[in-house]
Amino acid sequence: MDSLVADKYRRKMVGQIGTAKRTEDDLSKSERTREGILSAAACLFRHEGYSATTMRDIAQKSGIEAGSIYYHFQSKDQILSEVLDIGVRQLYEKVSEVVQSTEENSEDFRKTFALLIETHLTFLLTDSDFTSANIRNYPMLSDEVRAPHRELRASYAGVWGSFLNSAKRSGHLRSDISATAIRQFILSAMNWTLEWYDVTRYPVHIIAERMSKLILDGMSSRHRVVTKDLKTSVAVPYKAPDSIGKAKKTRAEILRAAARVLRDNGYKATTLRQIAEEADMKAGSVYYHFKSKDAIVDEVLNAGLSDLLSGVRAAVEDFHTPYDHHTRIATAIWTHLYFLFKASEFTSANVRSYGMLPNHFKGRHWEIRHEYGKLWDKILREAQIDGAINSDIKIAPLRQAMLGALNWTVEWFDPNRAEIEGYLSLPEFSEMLIKLLLEGVCDRENIPDTDQLTTH
């Protein structure tokens, strides 16, 4: 990490932390109101999304008159900017403290790694609406809005990078995958927990412990995994919308346009007018084919899940007993990524918009999501029964963490850059993730493979 950037933010945060430690009595009424507005906005941005939240919503949640909010903030964009900054700044400070303490006291690598995982997840899931709001909204913001926050986000990534590079030099991490890729993989797995982990049922430290072990050691019971006969050319039955006839072709184009808008803007910020513009037609004409925006979104979401389910199911059913479980799991991972990035724009729309869908939408699609989860549970459980997956791993959290690491890649991996030097193609990227999920991020070269497992 650039030490000048780190020092700049460290000094800035020391001042803010000093302010944060002031008692409520020390704050003026104006300062308390301002803090209340920011807290309300962070909560709304986290759960409703920035685009769908209005200044009136923020004022109402913070308990002030709608017009009064402009005494403290000129616009919603200014509020967003402060929410985004606080969300990363708080996390950056705490993680920096952990890493700095490690450098000074030579803490055990695995112990420090587990603490970093728990720190990130605690901010994300329980301690900070600001951090959660940042993670959920940042990917869908324009480049202009993102620009002022790139430096701080890069500094946070730099803290992780510094720690991982140091661990790599010490021989703790595998040498065949870059520390940058490992960092992205780790943050992806953690960030997706926003979409599935229920902190009202289980405390954060439980998922932190399990995720730390999974990331470090992978799911496989072997030190090194060899996947053979990976079925990357399996004929996955992608079900494109029926487009026979003019009306059906138009209908199919509306759905594809809606998928692109939904993928880029989220559910609440998507309008029929935007969908019509993307489909290059008049807004009123959309009603000839669909009754409402919800009817369109329903079909897009269902198509995304149906495509994914049928594709992965077909890929794994191409295997016959006795299974090569590692290759079977690798094929399922490859197929999931193939649908996410290439085969179905409906799948990426579903994945990117799911977190901010209204509950009634989630409820209508719960059954098919549950069916997809059951398919993965079956694949993983059969592998565990035959000894191909470590026996101490809980299958449901494993599946959630694994799919989270895969799904979050839509926020940072671009297969269209494969021709640029230093960037991976989708097959290369898939192979890397398969290795990380099966084998973990730790270096196993010097660990004797005493496992006498025979893969069935």
Structure, described:
This protein has 456 residues and is mainly α. It has a domain at 3-172: Tetracycline Repressor, domain 2 (Orthogonal Bundle), CATH 1.10.357. The protein is built from 20 helices and no strands. α9 (179-191) packs across α19. The protein is globular. Residues 1-22 and 446-456 have low confidence and may be disordered.
What is the compact description of this entry?
The protein is mainly α.
Secondary-structure map:
Blueprint lengths: L2 H18 L8 H19 L7 H8 L13 H30 L3 H19 L1 H9 L5 H4 L3 H20 L9 H13 L12 H14 L28 H20 L6 H7 L4 H4 L6 H25 L7 H19 L1 H9 L5 H6 L1 H20 L9 H13 L18 H14 L17
Helix pairs in contact: 2-3, 2-4, 2-6, 4-5, 4-6, 4-8, 5-6, 5-10, 8-9, 9-19, 10-20, 11-12, 11-14, 11-16, 14-15, 14-16, 14-18, 15-16, 15-18, 15-20, 18-19
Q: Which CATH architecture of the domain at 3-172 is right?
A: Orthogonal Bundle
CATH topology grouping of the domain at 3-172: Tetracycline Repressor, domain 2
| Main sheet properties | none
Radius of gyration: 23 Å
Q: Got a strand count?
A: 0
Global shape:
globular
Q: What's the rounded overall pLDDT mean?
A: 85
CATH homologous superfamily descriptor of the domain at 3-172: Tetracycline Repressor, domain 2
Helix share bin: 55-70%
Summed up, the helix count is 20
Q: What ranges have pLDDT less than 50 throughout 5 or more consecutive residues? A: 1-22, 446-456
> What is the top-level CATH class of the domain at 3-172?
Mainly Alpha
Tell me the β content.
under 5%
Structural class: mainly alpha
Question: Looking at the chains present, what oligomeric state does this protein adopt?
Answer: single chain
N- to C-terminal separation? 46 Å
Order of helices and strands: HHHHHHHHHHHHHHHHHHHH
